[in-house]
Amino acid sequence: MQIGLFLNGIDINSIREKMVQIKIQKKQRHFEENLRKLIVPELFEINNDIKNEVDAIHHMVKKLEAQHYVWENFEAEILEREKMSSTAFNLFAIPHSMEMHAKKTGLSVLISENDIVWSNKPIQLVIMLCFKANERQIFNEIFDPITIILSDINNINKLIKCREYNEFIETMVSMYNWKCHPENVQF
């Protein structure tokens, strides 16, 4: 970026744009670090055999239990939460417990090329959340950007095409922009 010898409006706008770009890049790096902490390769899966929400929840909870993320009652907590209100939206679901008492904070990701019937809705992406109470900060940092990213059907369509862990993480990071934290970027 070059600015003139005498600062003018165009230069000021160029500086502002560069500052916004730097802030977004810094937040993207932080977002990627958090994603890689929370979604480990063992918790990322492509599975085309799961047909419904109960099977998906059971399967994903068993993986979280095997990796020592959750207690044995986690599945019952997830199912209880689903009874209150479905966590399924446009092609995705974000099942979670109402409590933050997991052994470890993490996200389990399941992608299916086939529809999974979730509360009578077809979905293809499931992101199961489990959070430890003393790690609430990371929950606050990651949850809003993920929900903003998933609010765009084009983003969901890109994510369900991912076939491996790094591709999924990199795709999520590429979708992170100023909308994910608009209060922190001023124009």
Automatic annotation (TrEMBL):
SUPFAM superfamilies: Phoshotransferase/anion transport protein
Domain annotation PTS EIIA type-2: ranges: 37-175
CDD domains: PTS_IIA_fru
InterPro entries associated with the record: BglG_antiterminators, PTrfase/Anion_transptr, PTS_EIIA_type-2_dom
Name of one Pfam family that matches: PTS_EIIA_2
Residues annotated as transmembrane: none
Name of this chain's protein: Mannitol/fructose-specific phosphotransferase system IIA component (Ntr-type)
Organism (species): Neobacillus ginsengisoli
Classification of source organism: Bacteria, Bacillati, Bacillota, Bacilli, Bacillales
